[in-house]
Amino acid sequence: MERPDTYKTLHRPSEEILYKDRKSKFYAQVFPIRSEDDVKPIVEELRKKYHTANHVCYAWQLGTENPIYRANDDGEPNNSAGMPIYGQIQSFDVTNVLITVTRIFGGTKLGVGGLIQAYKTAAQMALENSKIVKKIIKSQYRLQFGYADMDKVMRIIKQKNLDLVSQKMELDCDFVISVRLSESEDVFQIFDEMQAVAITPIT
């Protein structure tokens, strides 16, 4: 079976949505993220923005093949906030995203079941309100070769419609190419069979 070489994510943060339940307000938003380091500043910014908020709960996921994720209840009962939010990330099949749900308590306790429902619904509404885009997973390779082989290499890059990420030309040529995951084995083989070209994957 071929590995999928696309994934769904967001280009830009979604609009914020408001979900209300028994006077509690739940403000939900989805953010695209590139690494775990992006999470803390966003959450801190929300704490400043909603300084009366009791909880800023969130979940995030990064990666495509073996994604990593975290879910944070921020003081709500165990698994009543972060996991229901994370469930919506799975349900919408998105990655490289952070969903935050900021709660301002309205005076009436919702109970664990009510909280799970509220956080799940707020996260779902935020995702429904997001512009989800499809991105292609690519592999990168370094090509090293002499000037004599430049034409051959360039011909394959054009034929296969490969992205040339960088090129250094000093004593020899040093190119970095980007290849769609589903085509990477073929492309690797083509260059690997060329005697004068060294190809190495960039991890």
From TrEMBL:
Which Pfam family name is an example for this entry? Impact_N
Family, per entry: Belongs to the IMPACT family.
* Example of a GO cellular component annotation carried by this entry: cytoplasm
User: What's the domain of life for this entry?
Assistant: Bacteria
Q: Which SUPFAM superfamilies match?
A: Ribosomal protein S5 domain 2-like
* GO biological process annotation, one example: regulation of translational initiation
The record's PANTHER family line, in alphabetical order, gives: IMPACT FAMILY MEMBER YIGZ, IMPACT-RELATED
**Record domain Impact N-terminal: where:** 22-127
Protein's UniProt name: Impact N-terminal domain-containing protein
Organism lineage? Bacteria, Pseudomonadati, Bacteroidota, Flavobacteriia, Flavobacteriales
